[in-house]
């Protein structure tokens, strides 16, 4: 009898230990990898466009959750400010255009950034790639905004090989100018450096990798081998080069995720992939069948390609989620995924963690595409409806994938607007072909009231004149901090 009780007690202790270890494993914060593709259009991945080559991206997207209503800003730095702060750009002064190197423009220094919060919760945080959130003072640069390290460039764009733009060199290793990479293609540099970070990291500590690639922003440059291998079937010259650039991005994504898998990170990881805005039609980006281009508040400029992947965090995978989500939502979503809700102060973002993790309805019913008084550009979404007032950003048509040199004509030329407002039911008409301003007066008036309420909260845009103190010639030929 004593022996039997001893066996039962031992068994109970063993079961409790096993259960406890499972609970501890489940509570362990996941590694978080946030991959950003620059200027990747809605129709620039091969799970939507036959002419592209993205097998690694496709596989992870289909195994994970494709976010079919994931919205971003029309331009680069506004989207990045939303991710890093959780605020709509018109609440931080970054709603007008994108930052330029000669401007004293930056993500406000009083805002708590995403890596700062993650660092306070035990994460290591590294940024590799494009910053574009200010550099005129060191305090606005990545290693002063929460990141342990930074390799990449400060501004919006540059040559992929010599890393210059606007008469200055722009490449940094933390805060030091890094010239040893001249002649190397940026996607290869960023991939190799990311792999070094992963190999050197102690996997017992949660890792946050922010990987905003230069690819596939203009200029249209790519090693010829990628065109020859994956894109020779494309007749349009610009689109053929763009295809090669997308293929390099896919290769980089595949190499990084493969290493993460080999080293065991994928057993507890949240992988996020998103673009920062729609594809630029003049530079071979494509958003078909959505209307518009980068720079615009049409769906083609703001509805981004995005997906999430995890091996252990989601109750359902392998499907497309149509829940409404905005760039500002990534801040609280990532914080909650790390193990705790972010409630330290009120932000515009709403956590989508339950939506992603358990396939529940999105908590978001409304968001702002942009409010920019300087550009006379205003647009909001509430429920199924979208209201546009004023300037749309141009490029108002629908642009199929080009098949000959130059842009192919739009499928249907848009009719001229009947007034200063345009109203669409995005659920029924995601291509924005049927303006409802004449037939839905009640909804139009309701939406106007909502837009006015949002407009009343706009912060003046921080879009100063160029400052000659920024001239790279004064800083050894490199775009540098220290002049504001």
Automatic annotation (TrEMBL):
Residues in the signal sequence: 1-20
* SUPFAM superfamilies linked to this entry: Alkaline phosphatase-like (SSF53649)
Domain Sulfatase N-terminal, first and last residues per copy: 30-339
Q: Does the keyword Metal-binding apply?
A: yes
| UniProtKB keywords | Calcium, Glycoprotein, Metal-binding, Signal
Which cofactors? Ca(2+)
Q: Which GO terms describe its molecular function?
A: metal ion binding; sulfuric ester hydrolase activity
Q: Which InterPro entries match?
A: Alkaline_phosphatase_core_sf, ARSB, Sulfatase_N
Per the record, which residues fall in region Disordered? 465-484
Q: Which family does it belong to?
A: Belongs to the sulfatase family.
Put simply, this protein is called: Sulfatase N-terminal domain-containing protein
């Amino acid at each position: 009898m004593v022996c039997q009780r001893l066996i039962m007690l031992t068994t109970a202790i063993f079961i409790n230990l096993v259960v406890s270890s499972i609970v501890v494993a489940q509570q362990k914060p996941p590694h978080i990898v946030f991959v950003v593709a620059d200027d990747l259009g809605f129709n620039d991945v091969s799970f939507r466009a036959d002419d592209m080559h993205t097998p690694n991206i496709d596989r992870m997207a289909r195994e994970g959750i494709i976010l079919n209503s994931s919205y971003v800003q029309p331009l680069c730095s506004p989207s990045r400010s939303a991710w890093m702060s959780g605020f709509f750009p018109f609440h931080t002064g970054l709603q007008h255009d994108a930052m330029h190197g000669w401007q004293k423009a930056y993500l406000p220094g009083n805002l708590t950034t995403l890596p700062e919060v993650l660092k306070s919760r035990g994460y290591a945080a590294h940024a590799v790639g494009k910053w574009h959130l200010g550099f005129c003072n060191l305090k606005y640069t990545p290693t002063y905004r929460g990141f342990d390290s930074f390799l990449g460039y400060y501004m919006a764009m540059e040559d992929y090989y010599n890393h210059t733009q606007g008469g200055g060199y722009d490449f940094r290793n933390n805060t030091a100018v890094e010239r040893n990479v001249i002649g190397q293609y940026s996607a290869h540099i960023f991939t190799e450096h990311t792999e070094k970070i992963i190999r050197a990291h102690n996997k017992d500590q949660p890792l946050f990798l922010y990987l905003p690639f230069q690819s596939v922003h203009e200029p249209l440059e790519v090693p010829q081998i990628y065109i020859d291998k994956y894109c020779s079937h494309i007749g349009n010259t610009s689109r053929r080069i763009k295809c090669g650039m997308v293929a390099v991005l896919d290769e980089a994504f595949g190499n990084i995720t493969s290493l993460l898998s080999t080293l065991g990170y994928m057993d507890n990881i949240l992988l996020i992939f998103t673009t920062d805005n729609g594809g630029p039609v003049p530079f071979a980006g494509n958003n078909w069948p959505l209307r518009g281009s980068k720079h615009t508040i049409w769906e083609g400029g703001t509805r981004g390609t995005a997906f999430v992947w995890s091996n252990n965090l989601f109750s359902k995978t392998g499907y497309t989620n149509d829940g409404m989500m905005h760039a500002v939502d990534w801040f609280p979503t990532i914080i909650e995924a790390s193990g705790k809700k972010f409630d330290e102060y009120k932000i515009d973002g709403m956590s989508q963690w339950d939506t992603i993790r358990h396939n529940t309805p999105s908590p978001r019913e409304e968001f702002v595409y942009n409010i920019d008084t300087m550009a006379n550009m205003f647009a909001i979404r509430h429920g199924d409806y979208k209201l546009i007032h004023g300037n749309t950003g141009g490029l108002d048509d629908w642009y199929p994938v080009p098949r000959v040199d130059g842009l192919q004509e739009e499928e249907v030329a848009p009719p001229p607007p009947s007034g200063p407002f345009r109203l669409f039911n995005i659920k029924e008409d995601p291509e924005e072909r049927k303006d409802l301003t004449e037939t839905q007066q009640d909804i139009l008036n309701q939406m106007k009231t909502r837009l006015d309420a949002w407009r009343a909260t706009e912060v003046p845009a921080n879009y100063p004149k160029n400052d000659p103190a920024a001239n790279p010639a004064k800083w050894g030929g490199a775009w540098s901090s220290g002049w504001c």
